[in-house]
Amino acid sequence: MLAKVYSGAVYGVDAYEVEIEVNASAGNPVIVIVGLPDAAVKESRDRVTTAVGNSGYRPPRGRTTINLAPADIKKEGPSFDLPIALAMIAASEQIELTRFEQFCFVGELALDGTVRATKGVLPIALEARRRGRRAIVVPEENASEASVVEGIATYGVRTLRQACEFLRGNEMLIPAQPIAVADALPDYAVDFADVRGQHSAKRAIEVAVAGGHNLIMVGPPGSGKSMLAKRIPTIMPPMTFEEAIETTKIHSICGFLAPKRSLLLQRPFRSPHHTISDAGLLGGGTNPSPGEVTLAHHGVLFLDELPEFKRSVLEVLRQPLEDGKVTISRAAGTVTYPSEFIMVGALNPCPCGFFGDLKRECRCTGMQVQRYRQRISGPLLDRIDIHVEVPAVPFRDLTGNGASEPSEAIRERVMAARAIQQKRLAGGNGRGACNARMLPRQLRNFCALDEECRELLRAAMSELNLSARAHDRILKVARTIADLEGAPVITATHLSEAIQYRTLDRNLWI
User: Fold this and answer.
1) What's the confidence (pLDDT) of residue 186?
2) Which CA distances in Å does 448 have to 228, 282, 382, 384, 488?
3) For residue 381, what are the contacts with CB-CB under 8 A and spacing of at least 6?
4) How far, CA to CA in Å, does 50 sit from each of 64, 160, 220?
5) What per-residue confidence (pLDDT) applies to 332?
6) Phi/psi class of residue 407: alpha, beta or left (left: φ > 0; alpha: ψ in -120 to 50)?
7) Cα separations in angstroms, 209 against 212, 306, 400, 480
8) Rounded to whole angstroms, how far apart are CA atoms 259 and 251?
9) Which of 77, 187, 280, 407 could form a disulfide with 192 if both were Cys (CB 3.0 to 4.6 A apart)?
10) Entry pTM
């Protein structure tokens, strides 16, 4: 007898439907799996057969052929265990096939028939809804994750037997209920109120977040660079439902979503170690998987000790910083991952960290300092909009009784500036409405300068020997500073502040 059920698999950050056909016929007792299965899928024949027997059902006798369609895409992972088991039981006429068309099934099986959690359930649920399935049956631990998809019922099961009894109509399952996203605001354990001093750095961070600009901080050890960076997500606008879905999909695919977690509400903050490879940062592998730049989508990518990263690793950041996406090509095909994030870099001014310090002597030679600085290329620095110095915090600031401004107050100003940008740029570039992503046409329309500002910018370009890319980024930062003040046009004051955020790459790096 032939049985057919539906499941799903992930390719890139999206899913595609997998049709699982099981045919039980007379012949030698053997199980054959076709349709480009990987090792984990091939092993499922032993895992599933044992689970079916231990759940009180009879595996098909004779020759059993299992086909995973489409046959031209490689199938990976153990998530096909549950649908294969159900199809095998149906093929041996122990379950009616009448309800199978309505469902999508995902889950790994233990040998005793327990259904274990698996990766990528959220994108599979989205694809099942697109395909017109009425419900999806998933492991109980993944039910909250899939339940955020409206228009399709989500049923969580603990065992293979429970799934079979549900399909027979002998057991009722209550669909998982999604959380109320509007009532579940992100709760951060850190706050800018914890940071003492560093007013200029806080101002630069506020400008960077308000316009979606990349940022680099330079300062001696212990000046608070990492502390500042970790608090950046707390002043970013709350994620929209669509952004939360995109972010959760990525973390679900990578298996980073906590059990019974429905939706990621906090902005991602990724801080990879400087020993990371280019594939780990950008994504890749034989079967490409997302890297850190994709895991930071809609959040912050923090690269501490920036010069310690391999130069080849840093250079692969050029495409995601420019395009907001990463394209990885392999023999099996091409995958594109989203990567719209705020990049934050932190570094010391020299190997010992005290170059230019008035109180502590730098022990580095001129050649050591030069080699250290040259680890970061000019083209990469050009793509970082804001450069700011983070000096050592004076004792009076550390011990002062004055309260620091909390993240909530800064976030309100950021959200007001973002609202102005959304109104101005809505539908203009397809990459989110913030000044850092303005297209050249939008730059000309919304960053027009008067004669005084043009002369100021001309002098800065000549004096600092800045590139054309730096010219555009100065205008974008100036537009953000004007938006924070609610100013309709860019003035010389706004432009001057934007220019001083670009002087660091010339004063420090040449």
Assistant:
1) 74
2) 33, 36, 22, 22, 11
3) 216, 387, 505, 509
4) 15, 12, 61
5) 67
6) alpha
7) 5, 20, 27, 9
8) 12
9) 407
10) 0.90
Distance, CA of 435 to CA of 441 (rounded, Å): 12
The residue extents of the domains of the chain are 2-168, 192-509
CATH architecture of 192-509: 3-Layer(aba) Sandwich (3.40)
* Residue ranges in the chain whose pLDDT is less than 70: 97, 179-185, 332, 402, 427-432, 503-510
Q: Which amino acid is located at 274 in the chain?
A: H
Both structure tokens of 376 = 């970061």
Residue 363 φ/ψ, nearest 5 degrees: -100, 5
2-168 in CATH: which number? 3.30.230.10
Query: How far is Cα of residue 387 from the mean position of the Cα atoms in its chain?
Result: 24
Residue 89 Cα distances to 29, 35, 59, 177, 213, angstroms = 15, 20, 6, 29, 56
pLDDT digits (tens, 9 = 90+) for 130-154: 999 999 999 999 999 999 999 999 9
Q: How many CB atoms lie within 10 A of CB 50?
A: 16
- Residue 183, both tokens: 């009532």
